[in-house]
């Protein structure tokens, strides 16, 4: 994976903050606070995958559950009553097992670990809260978002929507290295607050050699074949075949501790796989995956997806914040409601890595012909941070020819 960019936008009648300069922690310090988040974040991410896939079964999927859930968790700091309960329940948190402070501690710890300057993989996380000039945020809310989410508050003139859109879009374009432009359109003069957060992710530990990339067939769900550039590699890989779920799981590593799972179900088994995926399944794969020889064929692709999450999150249980029943009184003390939650992701998978293709130690492989792992029909891909069991993003490749 050469690059991955995820961005979440929350429009409330609200204000502005930036995430990105977390207090450094030692890499050998405990990841316990972040680990406490992983069951809920994984459950939320996989349920969101099921919702998005069922709504658009023929489309590619890419999103960051961490990006979305951290934005919603920050919003929790300003909610009360049913608004708060619905968000926490939908995010997968059982409040008898975890305290709200532990959730915010967990995100703070996770982002500090992920963005530590000594990390060998490239990851940048940021969050910005743009606030109406005349709006006064409650001091407790300000203190909390600074303490837990390292948020920078920015003011914006929403009474001049075009001016506010230009300000926010310029900020987003800069923070995403020009990959995401014109995120915000059609702002209302009544907007009070816009919350933006993003994740940018880096490159393979061991790249594919581009001279072995060739055009091959990729079979769509309806049986149609499309020609796509297929990367190829032969040697030692970590993989397994899950007989219960009828799927092949290939693990590719990033520099540092991040890994990618590419999950290829047998033909016709994608829906079964999506329904069955859980935290327990991911733990089982991590325990059972083995290093063996293989020939691997994986398509190059570049996809971007944009989601308006209001309807999906409402189906999942978050309803009140979008209505006049919203209780966001912890933000300003004034009546507010969320008008829009958007998420945009851009992902490129190609041969690029942080090592030259010809570099690295010489590996001896058996003389016998190794198994072939060919990702030539729809598959899932997941990026994990194993140290904290965090699911950073989830994707579904249906057609590599389509960028959306």
From TrEMBL:
Domain of life: Eukaryota
InterPro entries: Serpin_dom (IPR023796), Serpin_fam (IPR000215), Serpin_sf (IPR036186), Serpin_sf_1 (IPR042178), Serpin_sf_2 (IPR042185)
Gene Ontology cellular component annotations, sorted alphabetically: extracellular space
Signal peptide: 1-20
GO molecular function (one): serine-type endopeptidase inhibitor activity
Keyword Signal: yes
Domain named Serpin: residues: 46-400
Pfam family, one: Serpin
Keyword Protease: no
Keywords on record: Glycoprotein, Protease inhibitor, Serine protease inhibitor, Signal
Family classification: Belongs to the serpin family.
Protein's UniProt name: Serpin domain-containing protein
Organism (species): Varanus komodoensis (Komodo dragon)
């Amino acid at each position: 994976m050469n690059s991955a960019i995820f961005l979440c936008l929350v429009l409330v009648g609200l204000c502005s903050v930036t995430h990105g300069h977390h207090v450094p922690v030692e890499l050998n310090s405990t990841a316990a606070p972040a680990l406490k988040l992983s069951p809920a974040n994984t459950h939320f991410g996989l349920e969101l995958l099921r919702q998005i896939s069922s709504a658009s079964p023929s489309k590619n999927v890419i999103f960051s559950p961490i990006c979305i859930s951290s934005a919603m968790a920050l919003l929790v700091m300003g909610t009360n009553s049913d608004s708060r309960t619905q968000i926490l329940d939908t995010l997968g948190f059982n409040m008898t097992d975890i305290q709200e402070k532990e959730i915010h501690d967990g995100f703070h710890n996770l982002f500090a670990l992920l963005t530590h300057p000594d990390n060998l993989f490239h990851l940048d996380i940021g969050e910005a809260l743009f606030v109406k000039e005349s709006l006064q945020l409650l001091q407790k809310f300000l203190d909390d978002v600074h303490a837990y989410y390292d948020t920078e508050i920015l003011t914006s003139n929403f009474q001049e929507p075009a001016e506010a859109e230009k300000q926010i879009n310029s900020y987003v374009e800069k923070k995403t290295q020009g990959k995401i432009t014109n995120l915000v359109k059609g702002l209302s003069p009544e907007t009070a607050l816009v919350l933006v957060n993003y994740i940018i992710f880096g490159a393979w530990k061991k790249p594919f050699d581009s001279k072995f990339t060739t055009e091959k067939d990729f079979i769509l769900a309806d049986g149609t074949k499309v020609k796509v550039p297929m990367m190829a590699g032969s040697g030692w890989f970590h993989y397994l075949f899950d007989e219960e779920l009828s799927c092949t799981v290939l693990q590719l590593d990033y520099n540092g501790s991040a890994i990618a799972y590419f999950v290829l179900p047998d033909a016709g088994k994608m829906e079964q796989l999506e329904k069955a995926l859980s935290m327990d399944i991911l733990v089982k794969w991590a325990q059972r995956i083995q290093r063996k020889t293989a020939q691997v064929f994986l398509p190059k692709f570049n996809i971007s997806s944009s989601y308006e999450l209001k309807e999906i999150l409402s189906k999942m249980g978050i309803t009140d914040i979008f209505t006049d029943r919203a209780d966001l009184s912890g933000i300003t003390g004034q009546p507010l409601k969320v008008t829009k939650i958007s998420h945009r992701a851009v992902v490129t998978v190609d041969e690029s890595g942080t090592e030259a293709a010809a570099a690295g130690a010489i590996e001896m492989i058996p003389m016998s012909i190794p198994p072939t792992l060919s990702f030539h029909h729809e598959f899932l891909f997941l990026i994990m941070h194993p140290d904290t069991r965090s699911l950073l993003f989830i994707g579904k490749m249906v057609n590599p020819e389509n960028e959306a």
